[in-house]
Structures are given as structure tokens and as C-alpha cells.
Description:
By secondary structure, the protein is an alpha+beta fold. It has one domain: Metal Binding Protein, Guanine Nucleotide Exchange Factor, Chain A (Beta Complex). It is built from 3 helices and 11 strands, in the order βββαββββββββαα. The chain has helices at about 35-40, 135-145, 155-160, and strands at about 10, 20, 25-30, 45-50, 55-60, 60-65, 70-75, 80-85, 90-95, 105-110, 130. The strands form 2 sheets. It has an 8-stranded mixed sheet. A 3-stranded antiparallel sheet has the order 1-2-5, with no helix packed on it.
Amino acid sequence: xxxxxxxxxxxxxxxxxxxxxxxxxxxxxxxxxxxxxxxxxxxxxxxxxxxxxxxxxxxxxxxxxxxxxxxxxxxxxxxxxxxxxxxxxxxxxxxxxxxxxxxxxxxxxxxxxxxxxxxxxxxxxxxxxxxxxxxxxxxxxxxxxxxxxxxxxxxxxxxxxxxxxxxxxxxxxx
Length: 174
């Protein structure tokens, strides 16, 4: 019988948003999709994927509907990106950099390598997957945006859903 790992804690830069997670798996991944690049203001996003029931918000974030099929959690005060989740999934991603001890997570793969910025990539020997090779995610995009969709930022902008805000889960007092 395996022992339950100690909880992970994390939050945003200013400390307003906090969470606790108890994932059994401590493997992370890098997402190179253009939407994550923009959401993080970086060349990639580092994530820990876990079941939604393995984490809880101690002080919840605001959410932004980044497409018809997903939302992103962030701090409405300091702007720290914290999470990503498909609306129909029982899983979610936490931003590794938002953990109090990000060294507890180890990267195991790269995702959406077709938009990886080669000049900013240091070869690390980790495997990579193209977004368009993931049948489940491709199906979500086709269902929301039509059979001919090319998943990603341009599809969202063309559909004009990027400007549709999602109501924050809490009121911003300041």
C-alpha cells in the first residue's frame, strides 16, 4: 500500500489566492501552445495535472474564459496565472511556479510542440506531443468551434469569445 504524499501548497504573488493540493502524481509538463504563452507572458507554461478533487482553493481565484471549452484561474489583484481547466473535465492543471516549493514537481514531457519556440528551447530529452495528435482535445475543439477548426488562439479570436469574461468567484475588495 502506497503512502499518501504530503500536501502541496501554493498561491499567487501577493498572497490573496491560496490553495492546497494532494496529487498522487508529482510529474509535470510544459505546454507550448500559443494561448499558454500569452496567458503566462512566457515561452511556455509549466503545469502539474491533477484531479480536481485532489485540490481545494483556500482563497479562490478569479477565472477567465479563455475559450468556449476552458477557463484559467488567476489572481485579480496581482495577475498571477494559477490554473487551467477544460470545463467538462474532472482534471485540471496548476501552474508549477505558483507552488510554494516548485522543486517538488519534475517535468516529464512537452505538449503542443508545434508552437514551441525553438530559439528558447533547451533540449532536455523529454518526449513531446503535438496538440493536433491529441484526439480528446481535438474533439473538444471540433465540438465547440466546428469540424474544420485548427485548435488554438486563432480559432478563439475568430469566434470572438476571447473578450467574454467569466465572472470571478469572489468579489475583489481592493
